[in-house]
Design a protein that fits this description.
10-stranded antiparallel sheet; Hsp_HslJ-like; HslJ-like_sf; Lipocalin; about 15% helix; alpha+beta
């Protein structure tokens, strides 16, 4: 009887897929992704002024890229833009007036909301792949998502 119990215990122990001390919290699947970097990340607006961004099929996806040298550049959907940004204190993010080309397209309303949100930006918060921009009264003006190029 003792021998069969011993063999059964060995059989069950040999079938375990993970060590007994490993829990769901320490499992690789349960790890939380690190926050994206503010600089040198392509940020795509997903929500502007509380509205989801739906880019027309014949327009370019808008994006923002903050360079390590303090340059802000991107595309509003119709036009490319460029300027500078300031982030002197933790959580602070302000933009200089942005220069851009002046072409019209079907997504000009999205572009106008995007550049307006950037102009109102006073602070930010990154959580995972999401960048939230806030105005001076801490009201969210934009939600952007990090898009990684392959």
């Amino acid at each position: 009887m003792r021998l069969s119990f011993f063999l059964l215990t060995l059989l069950v122990a040999g079938c375990q897929t993970r060590p007994p001390q490993e829990t769901a919290a320490s499992s690789p699947r349960a790890r939380v992704a690190p926050d994206a970097q503010l600089r040198e990340t392509r940020w795509v607006p997903r929500q502007l002024a509380g509205q989801l961004v739906a880019v027309p099929a014949d327009s370019q996806e808008p994006y923002l890229l903050l360079r390590a040298d303090g340059t802000a550049e991107g595309n509003g959907s119709c036009n490319r833009f460029r300027g500078t940004f300031f982030s002197e204190k933790p959580g602070e993010l302000k933009f200089s007036p942005l220069m851009s080309t002046r072409m019209a397209c079907a997504a000009i309303a999205i572009e106008n909301e995007f550049t307006k949100a950037l102009g109102q930006s006073n602070s930010y918060r990154i959580s995972g792949d999401t960048l939230l921009l806030f105005n001076a009264t801490s009201t969210p003006v934009a939600r952007l998502e990090a898009v990684y190029l392959r």
